[in-house]
Amino acid sequence: MDQVPVTFQKRKKPRWQKMSPLSYITLTLVGFISVFPFYWMVIVASNGNEEISKETPTLLIGPRLFEVLGNVFVANEFFGAAMWNTVFVGTIVAAAQVFFSSVAGFAFAKLNFKGRKFLVLFVIGTMMLPSQLGIIPLYMLVAGLGWMNTLTALIVPALVTAFGVFWMRQVIDAQVPNELLEAASIDGAGVFRIYWQIVFPLILQSGFVLGLFSFLAVWNDFLWPLLVLNDPQQFTVQVAVNQLQSAYTIDYALNLGGAFLATAPLLVLFLFVGRKLVSGVMDGAVKG
Question: CA 55 from chain center: how many Å?
Fold first, then answer.
């Protein structure tokens, strides 16, 4: 009996071994350009204002960083409260956007009802309009409801967005098979039970990414909080950083120290969730 020769599949090289030296150089250059502004911010904050006017500035972090960071809380005694306000608003908005956007996305992707296609196009159409167009009517509405100078004015308008609904609609349409939903319906599960026990666990990764994007949007928002908030105890972190500027002179070290405090939490957050963020984006990358 002839013996059948055994063949082994060649082991593929890891993707990083296939990269050319030019790719490494390009990635290093892009990374340096991205990180250097933050590094320069730390240098100025730790050395003082005179560092900006030097012809040959130093590239080493100075000894005054913690002193300047302490001065930020002295110059604006409500800076810590502003950071807490931003975390509070961002957490509520992130959770609300994941829930409401996924519910609406589930309805648009899997439920058949009259006017569904028109409503989907309407939601997409609202994404084409600049957000600045809605500031004046939204300001009038918030003022009429008596929400001025409260965190409610920041939370309620951001509970759901057209981008979040569209994102969740695309994710659910691609990742949730119709056969699974039909089987659950035959077993007697209602619409909300199907969403909560079947759909939501399947899209949890993409929902986490949407929540993180929503939190970052709240953290970086400046214009709307500046318009509706007047009490320093209600300020968000970006408005608090803006309040560090003097009317006549600019203390660059103090301002960049505040900017460092406003940026550092996001960098720490990215260190912990960066890999999950990238994998969630890849899972939600649906081809049209």
Answer: 38
105 shares a domain with 163: yes
182-188-190 Cα angle (round to 5): 80
Domain assignment present for residue 81? The answer is yes
Cα separation of 97 and 216, whole Å?
A: 13
Residue 11 has pLDDT above 60, yes or no: no
The confidence score (pLDDT) of residue 247 equals 60
pLDDT tens for residues 79-118? 999 999 999 999 999 999 999 999 999 999 998 888 888 9
38, 129, 238 from 49: Cα distances, Å: 16, 41, 21
Q: Which of 204, 108, 101, 200 is nearest to 159 (CA)?
A: 101
Q: Using a cut of 0.85, tell me whether the model's pTM lies above it.
A: no
| Statement to judge: residues 104 and 122 lie in one domain | yes
Same domain for 86 and 33: no
- 42 and 80, same domain (yes or no): no
| pLDDT tens figures, 191-246 | 889 999 899 998 988 898 999 999 999 999 999 999 999 988 999 999 999 888 76
Do the domain assignments include residue 11?
Answer: no
230 close to 78: Cβ distance less than 8 angstroms: no
Distance, CA of 224 to chain centre: 17
Enclosing domain of residue 184: 72-283
* Angle in degrees, CA 104, 105, 106, rounded to 5: 90
Residue 235 in tokens: 């300020």
